[in-house]
Specification:
The chain is α/β, with parallel strands linked by helices. The chain is built from 22 helices and 14 strands.
Length: about 500
């Protein structure tokens, strides 16, 4: 085991500081035990290593100690005179509602202070009663580093795929970040089942493992990778922005130097591809995409809105690197502290502002909005989002590109269709309207048992009044607001 891992260093510092009682916050009991055993053998060579759980009781170098399943009796062994020792207690926090156990822990601290005897408690969450908060040191046990995860991947594929595609392997390691060692091992077991090595499908399997974690919060929806940037017609400036940041999530040095992308806010006319761009960026970056369901947050089924929102943000940190997508953010987050929601939106807004400023660099926030003018200025200032983009109605060239994308996706013969002519005929149309016209034309052609023709599409074009006409005043207002405040996406 490496002597320089952050996990090992976290525990080593607790021993160097001679903390009698240390709570290690982690889901990885096995990893904590392995690190504690390693330190006991290397740094405290004459110390014994002991473990306890309510099912096994106290187990020492010479085997189990009878009748020590009760935590009080096990702690009696700790305070008894003896040689140097390291004790690891699993899930003792489950007994913190018993005054006798709390009192006994305080006695243990006094008895073993300034001696070579140490007690480590493990728990998946920070749960200390008020009586113990000044007596117990707290250590956050870090998740596996990219180097540790790469070694794990090497153990799985090194034997039969020594020349694995380095770019693919790096992407898999990046995708594994945020998982515990058992979770990463399970994902690799599934990814490599029946195969001779890593492939592109391994990324999807790892992302699915992260999706299982997020689903438990009930308000985070995993969005599968289905679209590439090639599926986005036009928007060259926005697509270039995403491409330039592609490698930054895998470059830990770039992240440590403050170059890690923080977030992007994409506003624009409804139906012009805001959501599609976010989905395509997730595929480009090979990162899992999670949509925050604000309706579920305010629904109350998962607790108060503030608690539910805070848990969702914490979960995003757990599954990072990942993308958090907040759709129509102007309807989800508001600075208004009054109203029918009892002020929840205002409190959530304050939480979100603080989190955006201090969040880890490996959580990228992708927000979309139709009416960005409804958002408070605090959210738009630099430091929250890296950039604000405005997606306008597509110009003629972009409309031709959108027609090309939708026709090619549906395997339409383009030799008989002039997308430039169609683009000229659909001035002021958005991307969604163009797609609907193509689909409607294909349905009519299918009903006639023939391939779709250009005239079929023109017929559908003549039946549509575009949104830009029916909502002209609102669209003018959006364009006016964005003119001096956002970067055009195309």
């Amino acid at each position: 085991m490496s002597s320089t891992t952050p996990a090992l260093d976290a525990i080593r510092r607790a021993i160097i500081a001679r903390y009698p009682l240390t709570l290690v916050v982690t889901h990885e009991e096995e990893r904590v035990e392995a690190n504690l055993r390693h330190l006991t053998e290397t740094s405290l060579k004459r110390a014994g290593f002991w473990t306890w759980s309510c099912t096994t009781g106290l187990v020492g170098p010479d085997g189990p100690v009878p009748d020590t399943q009760d935590p009080g009796r096990a702690l009696d062994v700790v305070v008894a005179p003896g040689a140097a020792a390291v004790f690891m207690f699993r899930d003792l926090h489950a007994f913190f509602d018993q005054p006798g156990v709390v009192r006994k822990l305080r006695d243990v601290r006094a008895a073993i202070a300034n001696t070579p005897r140490f007690v480590f408690l493990t728990a998946p969450r920070l749960a200390l009663p008020a009586d113990l908060r000044r007596d117990v040191a707290v250590v956050d046990f870090p998740l596996p580093t990219p180097i540790e995860l790469d070694h794990l991947v090497e153990r799985y594929v090194g034997g039969f795929q020594p020349a694995a595609d380095l770019a693919l392997r790096s992407s898999v390691v990046t995708a594994l970040r945020g998982l515990t060692v058992p979770e990463a091992s399970q994902a690799l077991n599934v990814a490599l089942y029946g195969k001779r090595g890593l492939d592109a499908a391994a990324l999807a399997i790892v992302h699915a493992q992260k999706a299982q974690l997020a689903r438990k919060e009930g308000v985070l929806e995993f969005v599968p990778q289905q679209w590439s940037l090639d599926a986005v017609g036009g928007l060259a400036v926005l697509k270039e922005w995403f491409v330039k940041r592609r490698a930054l999530f895998e470059d830990t040095d770039a992240v440590s130097r403050g170059m890690g992308p923080r977030g992007v806010l994409v506003m624009g006319i409804p139906g012009c591809g805001k959501s599609l761009c976010i989905k395509a960026a997730a595929a480009l970056w090979n990162l899992p995409l999670f949509r925050l369901e604000m309706g579920q947050v305010f629904g109350g089924a998962h607790g108060t809105p503030e608690e539910t929102f805070a848990r969702a943000l914490k979960m995003m940190e757990t599954v990072s690197p990942a993308i958090l997508w907040i759709d129509e953010i102007e309807n989800a987050i508001s600075a208004d502290s009054d109203g029918v929601d009892g002020g929840s939106k205002g409190r959530i807004f304050a939480t979100f502002l603080t989190w955006m400023q201090e969040k880890p660099g490996q959580v990228f926030v992708a927000a979309t909005a139709n009416r960005i003018d409804l958002l408070p200025a605090e959210l738009l200032r630099k430091g929250r989002f890296d950039q604000v983009f405005f997606i306008d109605l597509p110009d003629e060239a972009d409309r031709a590109a959108i027609f090309d994308v939708h026709l090619r996706r549906r395997s339409v013969d383009l030799t008989a269709i002039n997308v430039v002519t169609l683009a000229k005929a659909t001035k002021h149309w958005n991307g969604a309207e163009i797609e609907n016209a193509v689909v409607a034309a294909m349905i009519e052609a299918y009903d006639r048992r023939r391939e779709v023709e250009e005239d079929d599409i023109f017929f559908q074009v003549g039946k549509v009044v575009p949104l830009a006409v029916t909502m002209s005043e609102q669209i003018k207002a959006i364009k006016s607001w964005a003119a001096q405040r956002a970067i055009r996406a195309s």
